[in-house]
Design brief:
The chain is α/β, with parallel strands linked by helices and 397 residues long. The chain folds into 2 domains: 17-262, Type I PLP-dependent aspartate aminotransferase-like (Major domain) (Aspartate Aminotransferase, domain 2); 264-396, Aspartate Aminotransferase, domain 1 (Alpha-Beta Complex). 43% of the residues lie in helices and 15% in strands. The strands form 3 sheets. A 7-stranded mixed β-sheet has the order 1-9-8-7-4-2-3, sandwiched between helices. The chain has a 4-stranded antiparallel β-sheet with strand order 10-11-13-12. A two-stranded antiparallel sheet has the order 5-6. Strand 5 and strand 6 (147-148) form a beta hairpin. Helix 5 runs parallel beside helix 6 (151-160). The N and C termini lie far apart (44 Å).
Length: 397
Amino acid sequence: MHAQNPVFIPGPTNMPEVLRKAVDMPTLDHRSPLFAEILRPAIAGVKKVMKSDRAEIFIFPATGTGGWETAICNTLSPGDRILAARHGMFSRRWIDMCQRHQLDVEIVDAPWGEGLPADRYEEILRADAGHSIKAVLATHNETATGVRSDIAAVRRALDAARHPAMLLVDGVSSIGSMDFRMDEWGVDVAVTGSQKGFMLPVGLAIIAFSPKAMAATASATLPRSFFDVRDMEKSYEVGGYPYTPAVGLLNGLKLSTELLLAEGLDKVFARHHRIAAGIRAAVKAWGLELCARHESLYSDTVSAVQTPAGFNANDLVSHAMRKYDVAFGVGLGDVSGKVFRIGHLGSMSDVMALAGIATAEMVMVDLGLNIRLGSGVAAAQDHYRGAVAASNVLAAA
């Protein structure tokens, strides 16, 4: 793959050069006061990105999967009953992890392409008069299908049922790129990773715990050692880690949060929405459809594009890499071979998105699909020109 070409996978994302340089730093003694000058601002920046005044932030050398494990093993005990929806590859994997940890998972199945069924959650929670359900799992952005679920609706379901269950949210492919309101939505544990909206290499699991979740750590009995937030909390008090930290990645995270906050979170989210809308305009111009079943579910970080029946979408991804040195995402699980995914999160601009759209068009024409070269590019250009002009007017007002 040509290193100058941007990637269009939903993570790891493209990295700004300034962040690559921040990660590439000389060895630093992580037991010296210098480390605290990296760690503490990184934690403070993450809190602001998650829109929380109350959360405790824990950053582990791991990935989002490690973040899932941190969430459950610090708050739950073997045999605890939890409620979860299974509507894509990553919601499925989190459920599988819970089952391996001997948790009793009540699964609500929904079609791939649909969001989390908050109304069904409310019915189940209302019926749980004894409050045996200890936690509710929610995948904010299902990366396999390009579907965003309504986390505020899950909180409303919990409140309407007057249920005390904790709300655990996978925000791996949303936080830092799409609006996430931890305090306002009453999220108890939020999970993300360094390689998505924070525009860094893989290697950090970033988890936020509400006061309620922190209180649950005292009674939780699932085994935990490496992912024990109590050990991390004690080490944070003296500006350190309970073991060797990923110093370079943490230095990158410190700068990443500074960049996001300097741009302004509202502008970051608006940029991602604008880019995503341009890609959706291209998909429509191609005569294709998204996996997400209706507009309210459209993700602003990844679009899963359905290819015509009988066409193997994985061929498109492999051809793009082989001929044009450009990476798109393959379909996963139930949609393998049926969709290809365009990641448009993290370090992404309108101009970069146009390159991805143009490449996808060339690939589809190469493979014999009835696509007219330039159709999607023109549709996206029209959208970007209008959206940028509108934003300039608002900025000048």
